[in-house]
Amino acid sequence: MLEMRPDCERCGADTPADKPGSFICSFECTFCTECADELDDLCPNCGGELMDRPTRSAKLLEKYPASTVRKHKG
């Protein structure tokens, strides 16, 4: 199951699990739309392709909450 990380690792923008607009690589590095575009959809950490992260419905977020650990390194 995806962690659904709460922030963009590059700029720190919020990436809510129930909203579109987040991108992940196969290691779940997470970036907002703007940063993914600036990175040409390539993960700066592993070089993998950044893909649209699926959303998680509110009902499922209750049972399977998103991560609260922020990864932005500032």
UniProtKB/TrEMBL annotation:
Protein name per UniProt: DUF1272 domain-containing protein
Lineage: Bacteria, Pseudomonadati, Pseudomonadota, Alphaproteobacteria, Sphingomonadales
InterPro entries according to UniProt: DUF1272
Domain of life: Bacteria
Pfam families xrefs: DUF1272 (PF06906)
